Amino acid sequence: MKYTSEKELLEDFSEGKEEACAYIYHRYFARICLFASSFVYESKESEDIAEESFIRLWQSKRNYESIQHLKAALYQTARRLGLNYQASRQRRFNRVDTYIRLQDQNQSNQLQEIVYTETMAELYHALNKLPHKAREIVELTYLEGLSNQEVADLLNINIQTVKNQKLRALSLLRKLLSRDSFHYLMSIVFFSSKI
Fold first, then answer.
1. Residue boundaries of the structural domains of the chain
2. Contact, 104 vs 147, CB < 8 A?
3. Which of 52, 91, 151, 162 is most exposed by smallest CB count within 10 Å?
4. Based on C-alpha coordinates, what's the Rg of the chain?
5. Which of 75, 40, 42 is nearest to 56 (CA)?
């Protein structure tokens, strides 16, 4: 149907007549799609926003003073839908980004746990090769965190004996452990001496 009167077109549109809706849809759809494309990346999405704008406007059954008023309402509706789309898209990206970051962090933590487990396995294997007294002193001081004096009191030996056994054990461990594992042990030694 062709409309020759703006007033008649607006009345029919406000009453929800399909002919008026189709007329306005065909006349302004391309413009609203072009406007909506500033909010999205794909033409299908801009078409969806444009269609939804027309549907919302038609369902509102508002009275419009002029075609300019109706077009302004169409643009405003498309703008609101486009901004909602962008906000929703950003939230989705943020969720995906957070998920990926957590996965990377979990993977990094798992890798650290593997390194720790392998290093400790190598350390315990090397400790079993030490003489009994040296092994006992290393386990008590470095792995259980006791001070030299506490170990001396616990084993009823002189504190100098504890220090000597530790030096002897570290010298043997340097030969038995890989360089990285020995450095890891030394970091434990350094950290425990700071406490």
1. 6-95, 128-194
2. no
3. 91
4. 38
5. 75
